[in-house]
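Reading a protein record of the kind used here takes little practice once its layout is understood. The fold follows as a row of integers, each naming the local backbone shape at the matching residue. With these conventions in mind, the following record can be read line by line:

_____
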Amino acid sequence: MAASAAALLWLRRSAWLVLLVLASPSSSWGSPAEEAGGGAGGGRDAAEAQADEQQHHDSSYGTFASEFYDMRFLSDEGYPFPTAPPVDPFARIRVDDCGKTKGCFRYGKPGCNAETCDYFLSYRRIGADIEFELSAQTDGWVAVGFSSDKKMGGDDVMACVHDDNGRVRIHHFYNVGQWAKEIQRNPARDEEGIFENNRVTCRFKRPVKVPRDETIVDLHLSWYYLFAWGPAIQGSITRHDIDSPPVSEKVVSIYKYEDIFMPSAAYQTFSSPFCLLLIVALTFYLLMGTP
């Protein structure tokens, strides 16, 4: 079928080439005006005939050029080549809604946002679903775990993984002790993700209530949230970046929106009570001077 269509297109183009040569004024065949004879009338007839031939030549060439252009952009079957549908850009995560229309957790430098925090998570209810947004400074993966305690083990985990092809995919895991086992049953839908500026960011929805399963929890109940991120090797997650990943201080309810900030280790030094007491003692010592 494809071969016959291609042959037909070739024959059509060859036919137009022949017609173009026959219609050309410089052709070796005599024109009607030349056969008509001399004289003033003959010269006038020759001029009119030449103008008609030129007009016919232009028309023939225009038709040939149009069909030749069409053939260049047709497939072997004679149909236009398909074009890829437009890709919607990833919508940036809004942080001005945190604590109002969605709950947020920020880990990192004070005042950081979804693009500058070491780790960021948001959640909000949309009908029977919960929409999660995750972002972390990593080229591998970023995840959230739902736990009945603050320890790793027996946890339902959703992870956004950056693979070797540059895509960010949503995976479902279950923590077996300190090991994350991937689960084929994945409750995520409407997933999207991006890897940009050495940062993995994703968005997905998950049902609030699911059929009872050991590896998937009901999110209408309250759970501790475990936050983790780290490198990946060929699309497979490896150990998280820090030894003690942050955990929510209390269980999280999807029906309550808060904007919670947790300083990273680099910003916790001067916030501990011992360090504050030490600063006060040193200040008092310098002000009083030595005896």
Q: What stands out?
A: Residues 139 and 158 are 17 Å apart (CA to CA). The longest helix spans residues 39-72.
